[in-house]
Every structure is written in structure tokens, then in C-alpha cells.
Amino acid sequence: MIPFNRILLCYDATPEGQLALRAGAVLAQQLHAETHLLSVLDTTHWSSGYDVLSATRFDADDEFARETLDEGIARLHTWGVDAMGHHAAGSAIDEISRLASQLKVDLIVIGHHPHGFFARWLSGENHALLLDRVSCGVLFEVSR
């Protein structure tokens, strides 16, 4: 079995993210892996305007992403997993691949909700881009 010594868990508080967090926690415990948790404020759907409402919304969304990170760290601690938290803003695919490379992780655990091609295209989800940008294993926890 390939050793997974360093794991990056991606968490966004969705049901899929919660499943991925739990699966990642179990893996981290069983493998005694160094564990990192990433919460990304995905700004790819933002307008390019810089008005007051955009700034206010960004601040509120950024605060929610930070609270999500704190919640994820707390859940991991209750499950007996110590993790280092990371927060980023930008494209989720860019930020996940950047941090995975920077930390030299062996495995990324991420939640996924199965959609049809059209729904993924509309929402901007493209996990194939992530797979093309990382040089480690990726585990998708799929909800039904």
C-alpha cells in the first residue's frame, strides 16, 4: 500500500464536505498521518465590481469560510485528529492544488455530489482540472 503520510482534507460544511471530513478523519487516524484542513472562499463566481455591496458580501462570505474552517478543526479534534487549518480565497481548484503542492501531500480528500454534466458545467465544477494539477492521490467522498 502506498503510504499516505500527509493528508489534505477539503471542507466546505456541505453534506458532501461533512462526509469527506469524516472519511478523512478515519484515514488520518488509521494511518497516523499529518493532517491539514483547507476551507476555500471560492471567489470565481464573483462579479469584478468593487462597490460597497461587493466588499460587504466578500467580508461576510470570508467570515463564513473562516467559521467553517474552525468548525472543521473542532470536529476533527472531537474525533481525535489534530489538524493544521488553512484558509484561502480564490478558485477552489487553484487553491487546493497550490496548497497540496506546497505541503507535498500524499492524498487529498474532498466531497462530491454527483450531478449531470450540464449541472457541473453551470456551477463551474470541474474536478478533472484538479486531477490534472496535482501529483498525489485524490479521494472523492460521494454522497447520494
TrEMBL record:
Gene3D superfamilies: HUPs. Residues 4-139 form the UspA domain. Transmembrane segments: none annotated. It holds the Pfam family Usp. This is UspA domain-containing protein. It comes from Paraburkholderia humisilvae.
